[in-house]
């Protein structure tokens, strides 16, 4: 049997499973933890935590917002991790990313449809639409740098897609940090302006992926 045939047989065998290199999980956790702490420190020093955060935490829509952002962040992180392992199954990644987005969009659409006409614009625009996406994008930069550094320790092959997933995960993490400052609660606002802020680092990651993640 030729060497190339043996390699092909082993690679296509049923017992072969994609796995990160030894020690990658600990290095990744340390790298991402440092990026997240930097984002939290930037938010606290620049924007500050809302003084009425304890009162906001008593509202169900606050926890809906947190659950949405956390779900998007975890789904994007899972996608970036799978894209960093050659041969890993990536067929269901889009569904995991789309599910929290669709649920929040449906919730926001229902809220606008049932609201009084004079309140619908406020539910969508809120009071911080001009700054919200930009602030999320800026807070995501330390996490994005950490995500890309962590992915360099893996072996992504679809570099642009892997970079976009890393950027979207960084945007989700930054949005989670931004929740400690943001006063907005409407599902329609969160589903559009928060997601817009997450898409900025996703676009940056897609641009940087072929250059930063090449191996």
TrEMBL record:
Signal peptide residues on this chain, from the entry's feature table: none
Keywords: Membrane, Transmembrane, Transmembrane helix
Transmembrane segments: 29-50, 62-80, 92-116, 128-147, 159-178, 190-209
Protein name: Anti-sigma F factor
């Amino acid at each position: 049997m030729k060497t190339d045939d043996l390699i092909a047989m082993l690679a296509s065998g049923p017992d072969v499973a994609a796995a990160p290199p030894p020690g990658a999980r600990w290095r990744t956790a340390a790298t991402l933890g440092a990026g997240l702490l930097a984002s939290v420190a930037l938010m606290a020093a620049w924007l500050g935590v809302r003084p009425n955060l304890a009162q906001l935490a008593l509202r169900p829509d606050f926890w809906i917002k947190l659950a949405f952002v956390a779900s998007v962040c975890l789904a994007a992180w899972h996608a970036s991790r799978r894209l960093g392992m050659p041969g890993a199954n990536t067929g269901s990644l889009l569904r995991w990313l789309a599910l929290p987005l669709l649920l929040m969009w449906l919730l926001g659409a229902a809220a606008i449809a049932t609201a009084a006409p004079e309140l619908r614009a406020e539910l969508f625009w809120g009071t911080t639409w001009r700054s919200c996406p930009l602030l999320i994008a800026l807070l995501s930069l330390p996490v994005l740098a950490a995500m890309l550094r962590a992915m360099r320790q893996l072996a992504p092959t679809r570099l642009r897609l892997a970079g976009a997933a890393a950027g979207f995960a960084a945007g989700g993490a930054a949005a989670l940090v931004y929740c400690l400052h943001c006063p907005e609660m409407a599902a329609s606002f969160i589903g559009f302006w928060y997601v817009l802020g997450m898409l900025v680092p996703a676009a940056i990651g897609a641009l940087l992926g072929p250059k930063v993640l090449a191996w």
